[in-house]
Amino acid sequence: MNSSTDSNRDLLRGIARRAMQARGLSPDFSAEAVRQMQTLARAAAPAAAGARDQRDLLWCSIDNDDSRDLDQLSVAQELAAGAVKILVAIADVDAWVSPDTPIDQHARANTTSVYTAAQIFPMLPEALSTDLSSLAENEDRLAVVVEMSVDANGAVTDSAIYRATVRNKAKLAYDSVAAWLAGSGALPAPASAVRGMDQQLRIQDQVAQRLRQIRHASGALELQSIEARPVFAAGLLSDLVPDETNRAKQLIEDFMIAANGVVARYLAAAGLPSLRRVLRTPEKWDRIVSLASAHGDTLPDAPNARALNEFLLRRRAADPASFPDLSLSVIKLLGRGEYMLEMPGQPIAGHFGLAVRDYTHSTAPNRRFPDVIAQRLLKAALGRTRPPYGVEDLRSLAAHCTLQEDNASKVERQVRKSAAAMLLTGRIGESFDGIVTGAANKGTWVRIDAPSAEGRIVRGFEGLQVGQRVRVKLVRTDVQQGFIDFEQAK
Q1: Please, where in the chain does CATH 2.40.50.140 lie?
Q2: What is the pLDDT of residues 96-132, one digit of tens each?
């Protein structure tokens, strides 16, 4: 560390700020945006003529334990013949932030919140995203509601979109809800305090599993990545804990994928251009075929999502410990998702990984600017008014949002590496069990589990293969650069 008085968090925060500035992301709001936020804080809550009053429904949010920028609520209503109506309420950010105002300009420039190990750099001021526009517990809020009927087989058969006033009856967290759904934990206290919320969660979970099954039958990929979550104590970094998926996270993921599909189709039906979220058919499919072959498996010569997912499922069953690293290799070969302009009536690439054709980003407007764009386009369609963005503006925004998302991901990855190096700095000379995650001309890489960290094997890497277990000794760390160097232990 630079001085004995600096905390780990402060040092990582400085690394994060410099990384953001180097990649064209602003860590701070302008003075004009700060003044606008002060004005908004004194203003009356916005109202919407004709908005439905749905405050009596059993809405709940499910998010991370410490999340306060709540973008979505969900509720289920049982229908005939095993069908269920799912309603997803999306925070009405546009009701607070008009286009081309200082806050909007900041959001448009960064396009996303940046989540680093040291600090969250929000796309919108925290007083807005975690309070005024957040779907906070026991608060009346304006929302855009996506309503969809899901039949007994998991198909979305009917849908609607409208504005409404909603009220979050229970702020819930992924881990505790997942534990309860799995039978390994008690019903979370906020849910137990609301009559009927337990049944609500059961129904939502059942519908989410139906939606998931039908997507996977179409070839949606089962991938598993490991991202470490930092644990701080009094400003000091004490651990990096794997942030793993669970049933509650999948529930929200499945609802958001379905809702985003409804939004994409609604805008197309309204004859409006929009931003689609796409993952093209992979150009490096031959390398994915080679990867499967190296694991003793076979894939067809032409890209086939269903065949790829069946291979992934076989590998997860055969070697669950190595599956996250195999998933990462596949993710890199698939390429990155991107935003593209969609013109009504013109074909566009779908999302190869999700096995869906119609997909946009619309359900996280407190955190992503493409979702704010989608919300404004939806309002134009609902009110039959002129859209706030022209075709060329949307085309430019698609490229810019893709670029800034990539920059934000690189910043987050840089700070994670620096955090891992920081945690291991006092353990030079210690040995760890690891698994080889990369072996190529660019270097040989190993992941250790305790703490969860990845580094380069700089000596003794000859002959090592991806997926091989290996004992390594830590020889060097560089917190500023995020470097961790190992040698194979003798």
Answers
A1: 428-488
A2: 999 999 999 999 999 999 999 889 999 999 999 999 9
